[in-house]
Amino acid sequence: MARLDVTETFEGIRFPGHLHTQESLSFASTFPFRDSDTLLVTYPKSGTTWMQEILTFIYSKGDPGPAKTIPNWVRIPWLEHHYFKQTLQQTSKPRLFTTHLPQQTLAAALRKSKPKVIYVARNPKDVAVSFYHFHKMANFLPDPGSFDDFLHHFLDGSVHFGSWFQHIKSWLSCQAELGLFCITYEELHQDLKGCVERLSAFLGCPLQPDQIASICQHCSFASMSENTTAHLALIPREIMDPSKGSFMRKGIIGDWKNHFSLRQDTHFNQTYQQEMDHCDLGFTWRGLD
Ligand code: A3P
């Protein structure tokens, strides 16, 4: 299933046809969750893979075995990807899933049970930069053109996976109803140990100090670069081309400052203001600096 040039539009949002079909998206939207499931929700490039690794290590109590031997798309598969049904048979308990879908697509399914939902957010300026570079290496995404072109599409929400603004607003509007555990990429950076402790409490998965130390060591950018790159090497280069970039690219906060012109920054801030006017995120990055 290559379908590298195919785009699937579902509920008004464009998805790469290489990974999504109408059937797989419909299946996700009516998925029968269980109360014992954990759902990781992110907009692309917000730290999905990082959180997948952390969750894997929390449930393995710091044992590197599962993370080293099983690719993340099998450990914590994407609900909306076409291979999901097949992977579901192999998923061990407790079941962990990942999704990039907006809240409204999963609203009905999430009303029927109470899985634990974790939302990871990242400063959208860094998301835009990371997503731009990812478009260059992922042959299942359209050619992003110049950074200026890409930023324009990012801000008007016409990029694949839809608008960052709509995504975060849709999920955070149900924070209380879903008992959402919100965390930012920046918090993971600043205090990984504290984040792991909070997550283990939320998941009801107590950890010993040596297990927490193991998680922090294995989930550092350096360790994950080796591990993630090893798994991504399983993906054919026609699909993800390592000569055009690295998935574990920089892993830093504030790389947008190396990419944005003053004009782009002003335009971004204006759009952010308009879109997020009445939305109090309550995250560490209150501003966009
Ligand atoms: P950059 O492109 O800014 O480097 P996702 O998994 O949602 O696609 O996000 C990918 C981004 O998360 C990339 O950002 C990647 O480098 C970063 N990332 C992944 N693991 C990380 C880690 N352990 N520490 C810091 N950043 C990490």
In short, what is this structure?
With about 290 residues, the chain is an alpha/beta fold.
Task: List the topology elements.
Layout: E1 7-10, E2 13-16, H1 22-29, E3 38-42, H2 48-59, H3 65-69, H4 72-75, H5 84-90, E4 96-99, H6 103-111, E5 116-121, H7 124-137, H8 147-156, H9 164-172, H10 175-178, E6 181-184, H11 185-190, H12 192-203, H13 209-218, H14 221-232, H15 262-276
Helix pairs in contact: 12-13
Bound molecules: adenosine-3'-5'-diphosphate (A3P).
The site of adenosine-3'-5'-diphosphate has 20 residues, from α2, α7 and α14.
Query: Helical proportion?
Result: 40-55%
Number of strands: 6
User: N-to-C terminal Cα separation, in Å?
Assistant: 41 Å
Shape: globular
Roughly what is the average pLDDT, rounded to an integer?
Answer: 94
Structural class based on helices, strands and sheet pairing? alpha/beta
In CATH, the architecture is: 3-Layer(aba) Sandwich
Strand and helix order: EEHEHHHHEHEHHHHEHHHHH
Low-pLDDT segments, ≥5 res: none
**Tally of distinct domains:** 1
Total helical elements: 15
Name the CATH homologous superfamily.
P-loop containing nucleotide triphosphate hydrolases
Q: How is the quaternary structure best described?
A: single chain
Small-molecule binders: adenosine-3'-5'-diphosphate
CATH topology heading: Rossmann fold
Gyration radius, to the nearest Å? 18 Å
